[in-house]
Write a structure and sequence with these properties.
heterodimer, A: 420 residues, alpha/beta, Urease, subunit C, domain 1, TIM Barrel, 2 domains, 18 strands, B: alpha/beta, Rossmann fold, five-stranded parallel beta sheet, four-stranded parallel beta sheet, 9 strands, 15% strand
């Protein structure tokens, strides 16, 4: 039996300072516990214990790009960042577009993952945006999130058919990377004052909003569950809000970096601030934070996108898009939510677990609940340096953070911190 | 000053000092860069910029090696980094870089730890062009403060425009960008005016600065045809007739005759295109000599 003593524990009735016992992979008791009965005691004064974080948007790069990351290193990074479950995106080589590749990734995860890995499947074969992928086979293998992430399903006819088809599968959801390739053609950062000053072609906000606006019309028609990935503009949040007020089955996510950085970061042309969608303006950041707080945006997702130093060490315009995020998400999320830790668990554990259908995660600790937990110190200050991820393409290197993951417990075992 | 990447890095005083130094080099040779090797590393086509950098280096007494993407290992897929490291290992002391991607000169400077002059990077900056344009204006009008300049054409895709848009307002000149919205939308406009009608601007400015329509940078889709561009924005003899007395026509070259400029205007007496070209050598001498003095 492991006993965690003295933490504020997120319970059904809010934060309570108490002890928690973990046995056989579940929370066995909450309340005052005699430490003499424990095999291990973790003293956690000043810390908060809650459901382990869940990330619905992670690039683990398996199969095919394991020099950037693999399931072992990516889930190690996730555990370090407080996550007990992640959803692996299917833009791999080859793409996860069939039951066969899905099972291959699941088997690799069974061998090497530190935490739970759910697999997202591609919507179209080879992510070409044209023919329907093996939806049935992937669904049978357990896939619930379907996405061509990295690209939009651009063709409205193809998307509409996919929505119709997927609406027959309970709990399946289309997750859209909203990017109109034609509007955004040749763009590398937000189209605005910074892109105009730098002379680097910009990505207009409409490259994102035009796709979301169109998609929501199709959702209204088909009734398919729809999840807007990594929204980055104030207008996107407005569109989602309108759709929700119409009662459409819509959710959305935002990344930690879109909640904290603006396009001004691109002034030095550092490839580690290049990603899609691009960093937008202060007004967008403020609107996204507000939307996250009031629930228009349901969850934070990192879009953890590792790239090797040689790949990123080139000119901004030719560098690959994406930054890592798993190991810095917690403090950034806490800051974006004005340090409301209860709301953080809602947005970074409970809501994403629901979207991904991960019933053993995002569960508020109670006797008998799965011991997928995270212990955090909301006030600890630390400087970002060094990562468990194979890659370190993060703009947060060297920055000071407030709020740190102390330990991550997956199915009753410490996978980061604590006693391992 | 260790390297020169953009005009924005230079204060107005530094700009004036470089222009003064360039004046002093006109038609002169010096020995300031004897025993120095300058490499021109050009990953984009260029005629006048490369020639004038090389002439400038020779006139400072430097040894010059020339490297063009079409004739080098770059065409075999060698990366910019490996090319830069090779050039440095060969013993080059100062590097001039032209590259299609913004920020490449900084990367080369970082990899090689050599002084680098940006000879044009993508749509972003071309600081020696800006300096030679400023020198030309100062020589013609005696000053830059108080001048009005209309920059006509594909301003959003132009590193030449971007340099002038930064420098001219700081030096007291008024700038109006002229072109269709498809061209002006991606230009920085905080400190300048924008017009979509050349005929509103042509009679009010001291300098009509024409830009080449840059099809290689994606401007092709921003207007229907060369003929329609010429009709709406091209500087023809009739429009030239509306210009103020003493006003001049400038262009960074190469020109598209019959598109942004009619042949008779290009060759006419208001055209100072060759004056600009002549200033390229002393300006680049001033920049390279200053960098060499300022190396650490």
């Amino acid at each position: 039996m492991i006993v965690i003593r003295g933490a504020s524990v997120l319970t059904g009735s809010g934060l309570t300072k108490t002890d928690v016992a973990i046995e056989n992979g579940v929370v066995s008791r909450i309340g005052s516990i005699d430490p003499a009965a424990a095999d291990h005691v973790v003293t956690a004064d000043g810390c908060v214990l809650g459901p382990g974080l869940v990330d619905v948007h992670v690039h683990l790069r398996e199969p095919g790009q394991t020099w950037k990351e693999d399931i072992a290193s990516g889930t190690e990074a996730a555990a370090e960042g407080g996550f007990t479950a992640v959803v692996a995106m299917p833009n791999t080589e080859p793409a996860i577009d069939s039951a066969k590749v899905t099972r291959q990734v699941q088997e690799s995860a069974a061998r090497s993952a530190r935490i739970e890995v759910a697999v997202a499947g591609a919507l179209t074969r080879t992510r070409s945006g044209l023919e329907m992928a093996d939806i049935d086979g992937m669904y049978r293998a357990g896939v619930r999130i379907f996405t061509d992430d990295g690209d939009s399903v651009a063709d409205p006819g193809v998307l509409r058919r996919l929505m119709r088809y997927l609406s027959d599968f309970p709990d399946a959801v289309i997750a859209q990377h909203a990017e109109d390739q034609s509007i955004g053609e040749g763009g590398h950062l937000h189209e605005g004052r910074v892109s105009r000053r730098l002379g680097v072609v910009g990505l207009p906000a409409t490259a994102e909003t035009a796709v979301i606006a169109r998609d929501l019309e199709l959702v209204a028609e088909t009734g398919c569950r729809y999840h807007a990935q990594h929204i980055s503009t104030a207008r996107s949040a407005e569109l989602i809000e309108q759709a929700k007020s119409r009662g459409l089955p819509v959710t959305s996510e935002v990344t930690p970096h879109h909640l904290s950085l603006t396009d001004e970061e691109c002034s030095g042309l550092d490839p580690n601030v290049k990603m899609y969608p691009p960093l937008r303006t202060r007004d967008d950041v403020d609107a996204l934070r507000e939307a996250l707080k009031n629930g228009v945006i349901d969850m934070i997702a990192t879009d953890h996108a590792p790239h090797a130093p040689d790949e990123k060490g080139v000119a901004f315009e030719v560098a690959p898009r994406g930054i890592t995020g798993l190991e810095t998400a917690f403090p950034l999320g806490l800051e974006a939510l004005d340090r409301d830790i209860e709301l953080l668990f809602q947005r970074m554990a409970i809501a994403p677990a629901q979207l991904a259908g991960l019933s053993r995660h995002g569960v508020i600790p109670a006797p008998g609940s799965p011991a997928n937990l995270v212990l955090v110190d909301p006030n600890a200050r630390w400087t970002v340096e060094g990562f468990r991820s194979k890659s370190s393409n993060s703009p947060f290197v060297g920055r000071e953070m407030t709020g740190r993951v102390v330990a991550t417990i997956h199915e009753g075992e410490f996978v980061s911190g604590g006693i391992q | 000053m260790k390297s020169l990447f953009t005009i924005a890095e230079l204060s107005s005083d530094q700009i004036v000092a470089l222009l003064d130094r360039a004046e002093s080099y006109t038609d002169k040779r010096t020995n300031e860069l004897v025993n120095v090797t300058v490499a021109t590393l050009f990953m984009e086509p260029s005629t006048r910029t490369r020639l004038s950098f090389e002439l400038a280096a020779h006139r400072l007494g430097a040894e010059v090696v020339s490297f063009a993407a079409e004739t080098s290992s770059v065409s075999k897929g060698e990366s910019l980094k490996d090319t830069a490291l090779t050039v440095a290992a060969l013993g080059v002391d100062l590097i001039v870089v032209r590259h299609p991607h913004a920020g490449s000169p900084e990367l080369v400077a970082g990899w090689t730890n050599r002084p680098v002059v940006n000879g044009g990077d993508g749509r972003r900056a071309h600081p020696t062009q800006t300096l030679l344009d400023l020198l030309t204006m100062r020589q013609i009008f005696g000053k830059i403060d108080g001048l009005t300049v209309g920059i006509v054409g594909d301003v959003g895709n132009s590193r030449v425009a971007r340099g002038l848009i930064d420098a001219l307002p700081r030096m007291g000149a008024g700038v109006t960008l002229v072109g269709p919205s498809t061209f002006t939308e991606s230009a920085p406009t905080d400190l300048v005016q924008v017009s979509h009608r050349i005929d509103e601007v042509i009679a009010t400015v001291d300098v009509v600065y024409l830009l080449r329509v840059q099809k290689e940078r994606g401007a092709g889709g921003g207007y229907p045809s060369d003929a329609s561009y010429h009709r709406r924005y091209g500087l023809n003899a009739a429009r030239q007739g509306l210009m103020k007395p003493g006003a001049v026509v400038m262009h960074p070259g190469p020109i598209n005759r019959g598109v942004e400029i009619a042949s008779e205007v290009a060759d006419g007496d208001r055209s100072v295109l060759l004056h600009q070209v002549r200033n390229g050598v002393p300006v680049r001498m001033a920049v390279m000599a200053s960098l060499w003095e300022g190396r650490s």
